[in-house]
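User: Hello, can you help with two protein structures?

Assistant: Certainly.
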Amino acid sequence: MRPSPPPDLADLYRSLNSVHFDGALPKCQLLWNPRLRTTAGRIDVRRRVIEISVAYHQSFGPGEVRDTLLHEMIHLDQHRRKVRVGHTPEMKRIARRLGLRKMFARDVPGRPSPRYRYQCPACSRKVLRRIRIGRNRSACAQCCNRHNGGRWHRRFVLVPVKSDRRRRT
């Protein structure tokens, strides 16, 4: 059985823009990206470029393409309205209202598994990352939100956790 052809992103964008944003979003360059392996989609709001993962579409179908494109369009709408762009509480409320089932595509085929483990010194929450984070750069989001009004604080800087795996000699 041959995989279905990818949906026309321009038609889908126009339709979603009309239905969910009253046609207020600007025109964008819409691309299928065969090299995108760590996420289902991404957007550059300043250049107005949205890229959708070919591998993700082939594995999960047109419904996920619609959800991914709509997710990126919400970010574009944030930029258009001059509010903070990102996975803010407002963005998550909008996503739920528009019927998006999930915020992140963690199961993209071919996605590298996390190699680095970190822990919050305050709450002991463990965080996995594919790439090493810089020293004193990333802090526990939950602790920063709960105890410091959502602002970064050094008390919650993630610390590396030694690997449980033993090295082979």
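That covers the first. Now for the second protein you mentioned:
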Amino acid sequence: MNHQPVFLRRTYDEALDLMIEARNYAAYVEHKERCRADGMAGLRMSCESLRVTSRLTQVMAWLMVQRAVEEGEIEAEQALAEDKRLSACDVCLDETFAEDESLPGGLRSLMDRSFRLYTRVARLEEQMMRRTLN
């Protein structure tokens, strides 16, 4: 990724770090917290954990496409094709339970940071779309 602009490298590093943190949370913490929660809270925890995963997966896929552009593997216009753009916006932008204090703090932190990362990448994509169309 040596050729990528600094902001894309930093965003990639942030996304990767967040993915690792989310994986570790899911592997080592989530199950214990879900066992302590009542049925509905446990279900919300599972749903929000999957939402975090969706956001991070979408962002990482988008960043890999941008890397392919920088490496000359695909053209910038191809990177903006519908199948290469961020998707699952209805899921990833849903913040229904963002302020739910019955959810564990670690999960709420992952929810917040993954949401901010997803929205930042969505703005980058929108800027790229505008530049390409003009």
